[in-house]
Model the fold of this input.
Amino acid sequence: MVLTESDLVEAVARDRAAGRTIAFANGCFDLLHVGHVRYLQGAAAEADRLIVAVNDDRSVAGLKGEGRPILPASDRAELVAALRRVDYVVIFGDPTVERLLLLLRPDVHCKGTDYSVESVPERAIVAGYGGRTAIVGDEKTHATREILARVARTEDQGPPRDQGRTEDQGRTKDQGRTKDQGRTKDQGRTKDQGRTKDQGRTKDQELRTKDEQDPPLAFALRRRRSADAVAVSATNASRLPR
Done:
């Protein structure tokens, strides 16, 4: 968990009262990588509780140079606190951890393999209150600076054309909706499927309608149709056997 200095002092006091030992590690932890993880795992193995002090943004800029840190102190502290073997995290802005060491008096001050016990700047302070210095973690073959340089090279190169989305990988005309797959004229409503003249109003029906709209002409046509009907009847009657 991420704590203020005052809350951390109280937590350490409770742990000491319970007979627990305290290990202390510190660093920038800007872009957490496997080297950081192994360093903190090694530090956790030195005692019952592990405190990690994380440099604030101003001190990281002073130590690492322009453009750093990549992540703000609050994010870096939260990432470190999420590691399983880390118990307490505190953010500090001092040039060194001397003040925190004297405030907390950890049993073990842990440094990475880029140091030797003799080269640790705070070694005399820790020894002065009865603590010890330990070198932990794997060889110093991992660095945030190298990761950033690798990312920069990748961005300069850009993605290869073959890795991008090609026309063949995208939606092609054949894969899209074609005219044959869409609604065609044959599939749509055709003239034959629609209402035809034979299915609609016929000429006789149209003439009848016109006749009804012209009474004199209608009367003459009715007389003609009656005469035709009488003639047909007479013809049919003459054909009957006698």
Q: What stands out?
A: The chain has two domains: 5-148, 203-235. The chain is about 45% helix and 10% strand. The two ends are 126 Å apart (CA to CA).
